[in-house]
Amino acid sequence: MCGIVGYVGKKEASPILVEGLSKLEYRGYDSAGIAVIDKDVIEISKCKGRLANLKDKLDTSPVKGKIGIGHTRWATHGEPSDINSHPHTSENGSISVVHNGIIENYLHLREWLSSKGYKFYSETDTEVIPNLICHFYNGDLLDAVMKAVSKMEGSYALGVVSCDEPDKIVAVRKDSPLVVGVGTDEFFIASDVPAILNRTRDVYYLNDKEFVVLNDAGVKIYSPEGDEIKKELVTVTWDADAAEKGGYEHFMIKEIHEQPKAIRDTMTSRIIPGQPITLDNIKMTKADIENIDRIYIVACGTAYHAGVVGKYVIEKLAKIPVEIDIASEFRYRDPIINEKTLMIALSQSGETADTLAALREAKTKGARVIAITNVVGSSIAREADDVIYTWAGLEIAVASTKAYTTQLILMYVVALYFAQHKNTLGVDEIEKIKNEMLSLPEKVSEVLKHKEVLQKFAANNYMHKDMFFLGRGLDYAVAMEGSLKTKEISYIHSEAYAGGELKHGTIALIEKGTAVIAIATQESLYGKMISNVKEVTTRGANVLGFALEGNTSIESTVDSAFYLPKTIDILSPVLSVIPLQLVAYYMAIQKGCDVDKPRNLAKSVTVE
Ligand code: F6R
């Protein structure tokens, strides 16, 4: 996490750096800082807390200069504080660095540098970097950065400036994202495209261990071996307005309302009535698909929850065994992988370090990897054998919403694609599911019109310390996502439980007034689920129940009911997650939480 930016050009750097950081705050917001060079002096301004604090500081004490680097931090090593904020500077004051990632051998490097007389002032891993560069500096900043990174283990995207070469920024990445922006007489580095989208749409995506030197005359890129290389300049087609709230109070609620469009866009050209499902430029042949004997879906957080739905539907429709794994666990449990294994790496950002590491592990062992991601050109997209994009558009709120629903759509598309090739479903059955899928955007819009019951439940329950989400089958998979949304933005402890499992222990926690959301959209499990809901209402729980339109019998069991448009069982997660996102949102608002930037979190988790 953390976001870095850099600017060199003919304008004042400071406002441009701050503007860029404002688009990267989703990556971390524990502190912020910039380093700007004026003539041959590096001026630093940095402080604990949100970017707003840095802005205030810069208003009273501006820093001047036309070249600089900036950082917004998600603390890993060392508490959020002024001293631990980036940029970090070498002890002699000549080199300043912003860093996203973790230097895993920093203690060793710190000891080594200390033995040579270097002093350290912060608790961060980053502070070794400027000192290491300083140690190797012999009149050539690029050469010193190359030598320094050869000693570093871990992950990094770095922006480096030196008062000895005040006209340039040197940058490099390994396992942390970094793009280079090319404008007219101005050049940029950034952790992510939105930071520079107001200034340029032309970017280079750097690969691991590629170095870049930027000055006001242009950009030079070097291979890990130090040879100058040419790369393709990519023009970003995103709409810059996507990074604005467009009249909504928060990005999260805006993104919740964008779901009908995101779902429609993600189905476009893949699901067309009467035509076979197409999967972009996926290079798998019918024989390749028949050869698969096991699929691992690997992901983290919300993407993992989409993967749980994926397991159900791929097994049900395509009859291929699927395991769903938390990415950070996958590679350490020695999973059985061979050339018949397919991994689906699911990641909104395409940069999640745990998912990337799992992908690499699977590839090393001979598996084929399909990435499902929302970010074109991201590391996971580039390293996978095939990529399928969720066309959700830019997702800024830390709590994922439209990325989840579009990931669900691609889980269905992949399941149907395999079913079509393996003949595990008839043409008519596939057409029926496709037609039902095409009606989902409409149905999501319908769900979004009815918020009163949800607002009332949120108003009556936001002060609770604990909550439970119950469901069976796919409703259980969605319950997990509802529970995560609640935890992360409204800070209410919550648990998702399979309806039938509660009585094996957890029901001991249910007492008078316990808040429960029960999801009962699976026609085949409706009766059983209602019995499970009765088990908690009998013990005094206050239950909001979700059911499909027409299943009004739920009203005799729950305190309040919310109805979802009718759909087929496998597709209901796309509808039932919407009220769960809304309830979490309304509870967070009632509690006065910072919805778009929940405490301790960052959107893009680029450390393991
Ligand atoms: C929760 C959330 C996280 C992410 C997780 C994986 O709302 O956003 O749980 O889903 O960090 O991120 P990606 O999908 O970018 O790999």
TrEMBL record:
Residue span(s) of domain SIS: 285-424, 453-598
Catalytic activity: D-fructose 6-phosphate + L-glutamine = D-glucosamine 6-phosphate + L-glutamate
Entry-linked PROSITE patterns: GATASE_TYPE_2, SIS
CDD domains membership: GFAT, SIS_GlmS_GlmD_1, SIS_GlmS_GlmD_2
GO molecular function, one term: glutamine-fructose-6-phosphate transaminase (isomerizing) activity
An example Gene Ontology biological process: fructose 6-phosphate metabolic process
Pfam family, one: GATase_6
Keyword Repeat: yes
EC number: 2.6.1.16
Domain of life: Bacteria
Domain Glutamine amidotransferase type-2: 2-217
Localisation per UniProt entry: Cytoplasm
InterPro entries: GATase_2_dom (IPR017932), GFAT (IPR005855), GFAT_N (IPR047084), GlmS/AgaS_SIS (IPR035466), GlmS/FrlB_SIS (IPR035490), SIS_dom (IPR001347)
Transmembrane regions listed in the UniProt entry: none
Main location: cytoplasm
Catalytic machinery residues: 2 (nucleophile), 603 (for fru-6p isomerization activity)
Uppermost EC category: transferase
Keyword RNA-binding found: no
Gene Ontology cellular-component terms listed: cytosol
Keywords: Aminotransferase, Cytoplasm, Glutamine amidotransferase, Repeat, Transferase
Subunit structure of this chain's protein: Homodimer.
Stated role: Catalyzes the first step in hexosamine metabolism, converting fructose-6P into glucosamine-6P using glutamine as a nitrogen source.
Name of the featured protein: Glutamine--fructose-6-phosphate aminotransferase [isomerizing]
